[in-house]
Amino acid sequence: MSEDEIRILVKENKIITLKELFSADTEARKEMASMTFEEKIKALIILQEIAHSWGGKKDVIIWQS
Q1: Are 17 and 4 a contacting pair, CB within 8 Å?
Q2: Is the whole-model pTM more than 0.70?
Q3: Which backbone phi and psi does 15 adopt, to 5 degrees?
Q4: Closest of 39, 41, 19, 21 to residue 31, by C-alpha
């Protein structure tokens, strides 16, 4: 099976190719690289809050902003 034939089911039942998946990943990395340090810290705090509440990780420390 070639990479062109591989299909992946993503959210909202959308089907994409492996090439589209890697392209979207590259774009996301570029967007994250352009974020300021403060924006990255805010994103980290949000992820910590998600891990604490939704993920059931009660030992996660949530930084204060």
Answers
A1: yes
A2: no
A3: -110, 125
A4: 39
